[in-house]
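tmp note - DRC2 protein
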Amino acid sequence: QRVLRLAEMCRRLQTEEEKILPFYSSSLAEGEQQEAQRVLKEAPTEPLAQALQDYLGLELFWQLFNKAKLEELALGREQQALRERNQQLRELLGQYLAEISGRQEVPGEPKAL
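out:
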């Protein structure tokens, strides 16, 4: 019941695009996709494959989870790049302000406009 309640809460938070197009395009070629479908239709023979067969219903969850994690990592990297750029701009502004204040203190030199 708890899992179903959480799934319903997550469904409400999905964007319109995720509700309409919940499946992602595959990076496999058409022949590879057909081979994968054929393999999925076969009955599993190994114990691990049989156990994984029970969790095929969670495939959409894992796709969404992985997408969210990738977005989180991308945003983290972008935030770090912005922090570094902000630091560079602060340093340049500090150098510029130091240069301007230094010029004004030099006697006999015309003031810059």
